[in-house]
Amino acid sequence: MSLLERLNDDMKQAMRNKEKDKLSVIRMVKASLQNEAIKLGTKELTDDVELTVLSREVKQRKDSLHEFGKAGREDLVDKLRTELAIVELYMPKQLSEEELAGVVKETISEVGAKSKAEMGKVMSAIMPKVKGKADGALVNKLVQQHLS
């Protein structure tokens, strides 16, 4: 079942169950996917592009969550946490920190990096491997730890 089919099924179920928050988030995600398809000039998106759009949605919500938290807007923080939980249902299973550390070590040895000066080379090699399965900030932190 494709992501769009899953979103449509979940949207119908949310309508039946009168889950307004879930319905709203699913509609936003569908709109983002459709906008991306229009931008690319295609009818169907590849899994990779769908994952990119979902990752963008998660990142936007996490950034907003952080900003609203700093501003003391707990009403918006709670709403965003709910939205984030719903969007994350459609993301692939996230790697644990231990699994991610293993991928980081493996990539560092593949690339042959020895210092933090080669961090860009490591990051560009590792991000396609963990796309959608790990937060970029966590990957960055682990790469820095392993290169120091």
- Give the CA-CA distance, first to last residue: 44 Å
Q: Report the portion of residues in β strands.
A: under 5%
Largest sheet: none
Number of helices: 7
Measured as a percent range, the helix fraction is over 70%
Q: What's the average pLDDT?
A: 89
Assembly state (oligomeric): single chain
**H/E topology pattern:** HHHHHHH
Number of strands: 0
Describe the global form.
Answer: globular
Class computed from helices, strands and strand pairing: mainly alpha
Rg (CA only): 18 Å
Low-pLDDT ranges? none
Overall description:
With about 150 residues, this protein is an all-alpha fold. About 75% of the residues lie in helices and about 0% in strands. The chain is built from 7 helices and no strands. The protein has helices at about 5-15, 20-40, 45-70, 75-90, 95-110, 120-130, 135-145. Helix 1 packs antiparallel against helix 2 (about 20-40), helix 2 packs across helix 4 (about 75-90) and helix 3 runs antiparallel to helix 4 (about 75-90). The radius of gyration is 18 Å and the shape is globular.
